């Protein structure tokens, strides 16, 4: 299949190294034949391109990626923080607005038919979600409350053998925030998941017990 999408993934605003993006793409190729994938934390669409390109390659109606974000930025993206980008602030409202960047990135990569943008808070969307997932990528807000809510709200929708992918997992506080690491430990401690791959700050866990809708701890 064509990799014409790759330059768009590399050019899109975001914080994912290319090797981790390619891991995400490879794992999406594995799981999308079995049902849709969902990403928590769209930002400007970089990781959604890696996922959407896999959906395009797999083909079929069920090879769809949903990506959820309120597009006002996480805590670490706000003014005064390390990862703030003033270029994504809407001057009329004085707040971050990443949705146009995500839409443009997906358009330019030719992936608008494969990626569905869900605009809203993760907790609101997860409360009303009913569709089993083959892959869940958690890369939303890194505050403890938000990261834990993303796991609580979405992980139980994974089918057995489905993959839970968590980004920015750092066991050493000197390397980064601890909330994604705590989610990683929570998933392993639940007994519902086992780790199958690690690369950089990315962790891939497979659901080994229960079915979609069952609690995951």
Automatic annotation (TrEMBL):
Gene Ontology molecular functions: methyltransferase activity
Superkingdom of this protein's organism: Bacteria
GO biological process: DIM/DIP cell wall layer assembly; methylation
Keyword Repressor in annotation: no
Pfam families: Methyltransf_24
Entries under InterPro entries matching the protein: SAM-dependent_MTases_sf
GO terms for cellular component: plasma membrane
Key words, A-Z: Methyltransferase, Transferase
Protein name from the UniProt record: Class I SAM-dependent methyltransferase
Species this protein is from: Nocardioides dokdonensis FR1436
